[in-house]
């Protein structure tokens, strides 16, 4: 017992830890708001344990969506600790336990009927597609805050990790499979063919918002160019575009000839400029263009300390 007390005393809580837990709380609140305001009232099932909770709440209205999510999350977390060890971490457990509480409190506070919720000011009964989009955006922001804090909200993420571990498929694909089953379950329970369509819209919007926040929504392009006229291309990049670049030593697999590959990061606007120039000086040039998730450094965004960094 004394050893346990000593271990507790040795736990150091940094400002960064406090910041991350606050972001988890904020993310949980936003996810809860998305469900209470735009998802649950319109019987949208956007995957996850809370999507399943929407369907189960339809069957058993006396039990709130957040409570169903907690009922499903607890055994999943126990199973995860058995098979995945401490992989989840304290922040994920914190997120999984606070989210249903926040959701239920918000639901008790403002109700579940769109006609009376907030005085009916956000009643979207006649425009469910708009509810899907609002719900997806707010949910995406909330999930991003939790992910940036090095946590997840538990739920189907845990099932996906287990499937990935034992079936050896990527977690993203496993998560897609699990959430698809949840959407189909919602279709069966609610008996409405529009459920999967609305759910897919919400999932799509949510995913895009998460990508935008986590990856910076960068429109920058990575350009690799092989050309006999690389000197002219280099001068164009340095003088006309006022960009820096890098030469990469390359060798042809067939000819074994040494080549200079030009590597440069440019904006989407500049892409057409460099394409036109390369075409004008060497129509036999080889060019590869790749999307950059995020570009940090001189000439682009400055390095910033991430929320979870």
User: Helical content, roughly?
Assistant: 55-70%
Gross morphology is elongated
SS elements, strand count? 4
First and last CA, distance: 34 Å
What share of the residues does DSSP label as strand, in percent?
Answer: 5-15%
Tell me the major beta sheet. Answer: 4 strands, antiparallel
Tally the structural domains.
Answer: 2
Question: Structural class, please?
Answer: alpha+beta
Q: Helices and strands, in N-to-C order?
A: HHHHHHHHHEHEEHE
| Secondary structure tally, helices | 11
Radius of gyration: 25 Å
pLDDT < 50 stretches: 3-9
Name the average pLDDT.
83
Structure explained in plain terms:
This protein is α+β, with helices and mostly antiparallel strands. The protein folds into two domains: 2-215, no CATH class; 221-291, Alpha-Beta Plaits. The chain contains eleven helices and four strands; from the N terminus they run H-H-H-H-H-H-H-H-H-E-H-E-E-H-E. It has helices at residues 2-10, 15-39, 48-59, 65-84, 89-110, 128-148, 156-167, 171-190, 194-215, 230-240, 268-281; strands at 221-226, 246-251, 258-266, 286-291. It has a four-stranded antiparallel β-sheet with strand order 2-3-1-4. Strand 2 (246-251) and strand 3 (258-266) form a beta hairpin. Helix 2 (15-39) runs antiparallel to helix 6 (128-148), helix 3 packs parallel to helix 8 (171-190) and helix 4 (65-84) runs parallel beside helix 7. The chain is elongated and about 75 Å long. It starts with a helix and ends in an 18-residue tail after the last strand. Residues 3-9 have low confidence and may be disordered.
């Amino acid at each position: 017992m004394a050893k346990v007390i000593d271990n507790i005393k040795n736990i150091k809580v940094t400002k960064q830890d406090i910041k991350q837990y606050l972001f988890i709380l904020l993310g949980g609140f936003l996810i809860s708001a998305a469900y209470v305001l735009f998802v649950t009232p319109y019987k949208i099932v956007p995957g996850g344990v809370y999507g399943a909770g929407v369907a189960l709440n339809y069957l058993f209205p006396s039990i709130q969506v957040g409570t169903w999510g907690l009922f499903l999350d607890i055994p999943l977390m126990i199973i995860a600790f058995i098979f995945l060890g401490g992989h989840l971490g304290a922040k994920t457990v914190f997120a999984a336990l606070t989210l249903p509480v926040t959701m239920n409190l918000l639901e008790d506070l403002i109700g579940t009927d769109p006609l009376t919720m907030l005085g009916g000011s956000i009643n979207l009964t006649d425009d469910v597609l708009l509810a899907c989009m609002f719900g997806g955006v707010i949910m995406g922001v909330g999930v991003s805050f939790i992910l940036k804090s090095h946590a997840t909200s538990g739920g189907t993420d845990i099932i996906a990790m287990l499937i990935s571990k034992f079936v050896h498929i990527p977690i993203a694909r496993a998560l897609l499979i699990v959430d698809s089953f949840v959407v189909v379950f919602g279709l069966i329970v609610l008996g409405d063919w529009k459920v999967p369509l609305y759910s897919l819209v919400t999932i799509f919007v949510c995913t895009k918002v998460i990508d935008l926040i986590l990856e910076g929504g960068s429109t920058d392009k990575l350009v690799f160019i092989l050309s006999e006229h690389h000197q002219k291309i280099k001068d164009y990049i340095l003088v006309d575009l006022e960009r820096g670049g890098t030469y990469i030593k390359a060798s042809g697999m067939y000819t074994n000839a040494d080549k200079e590959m030009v590597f440069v990061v440019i904006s989407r606007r500049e892409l057409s400029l460099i394409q036109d120039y390369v075409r004008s000086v060497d129509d036999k040039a080889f060019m590869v263009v790749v999307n950059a998730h995020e570009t940090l450094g001189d000439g682009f965004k400055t390095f910033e300390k991430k929320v979870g960094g």
